[in-house]
Amino acid sequence: MVLPSPLPTDPSGPAERPASMRSHPSAHRPAASHQHAHATGPGPRGWVDAGAPVERVQLDERSWVDVVRGLVPDAERVHHEVLRATPWRQGRSFRYERWVDDTRLSATVAGSRRHPALAAVETWLVRRYRVRFSGVVLTQYRDARESLGFHRDTGMTWLDDTLVAVFTLGAQRSWFLRPDTGRQRFADDDELRDVVDLAPSGGDLLVMGGACQRDWLHAVPPSAVAVGGRISAQWRWASRRGEPDLSLRHRDAWRFTSAR
User: How many CB atoms lie within 10 A of CB 167?
Assistant: First the structure.
């Protein structure tokens, strides 16, 4: 797989993100294997592209990310409809071992409250990975400065075998992955040499799997150039195998978009 060139990022931003978050030309480019998506049934037909290829990026022996470009061909229409119909709220997130105010808007939808395209993507996920999800969390990035620093989705508690699917609507933004080596996450001199930038566009799906939430960090950095709005739709599942991670208050962390 040929990964896209890293997008320009902004070294400034809110306190919760790194002071020098910028892409680096020597970003790690792991090898990828190509697979083909399973055909969808009558329900999702018309929203998802049954022939969209699935590219498996093997991050290490136990961690991987599947990249599905153009899974939803009519992504621009879906973006406008989801943006308009979603009951967005300003919430708080349990990040970096404390509650912080969100710079982004968020919402949680399930069942008939989902846009049919989101329901179709969820059906695609269920059929491919053979697991069930409890709903989809939506996050809105309204401009280039709204971002999310390096983190793991520790709220699932069991991190040895998880699935985290991220579907993008709207503008293309950098989307970073890097191994969690225990370094300071917001170092001013961080040159991001070990970063993989998957940079999803509208209609693209990323699925992190295996031990990715235990051993890798992901982030959406601020952009150095003006970009339109982006919506991230996220589904999460954990097998509950292995040792639970008890380092955080997981009951609170799971509600990472609490409307407090």
Answer: 29
User: Would you say residue 83 lies in a domain?
Assistant: yes
Q: Which pLDDT does position 96 carry in this prediction?
A: 62
Domain encompassing residue 66: 42-254
Q: Is 18 among the domain residues?
A: no
Count how many domains the chain has: 1
Task: Supply 130's token pair.
Answer: 């053979």
CATH number for the domain that contains residue 128:
2.60.120.590
Residue with tokens 């991050």: 59
Tell me how far apart the alpha carbons of residues 73 and 84 are, in angstroms, rounded to a whole number.
19
Q: Does some domain include residue 88?
A: yes
For 70, 151, 154, the CA distances from 76, given in Å and listed in that order, are 11, 28, 31
Nearest Cα neighbor of 164 from 106, 110, 235 is 235
CA dihedral 125, 126, 130, 132 (to 10 degrees): 120
Q: 28-74: per-residue pLDDT in tens?
A: 545 455 454 433 333 445 899 999 999 999 999 999 999 999 999 99
For the segment 228-249, what is each residue's pLDDT rounded down to a tens digit?
A: 999 999 999 988 887 777 765 4
Question: Would residue 63 count as lying in a domain?
Answer: yes
Give how far the C-alpha of residue 205 lies from the chain's centroid of Cα atoms, to the nearest Å.
9
Q: Quick one: average pLDDT of 166-184?
A: 92
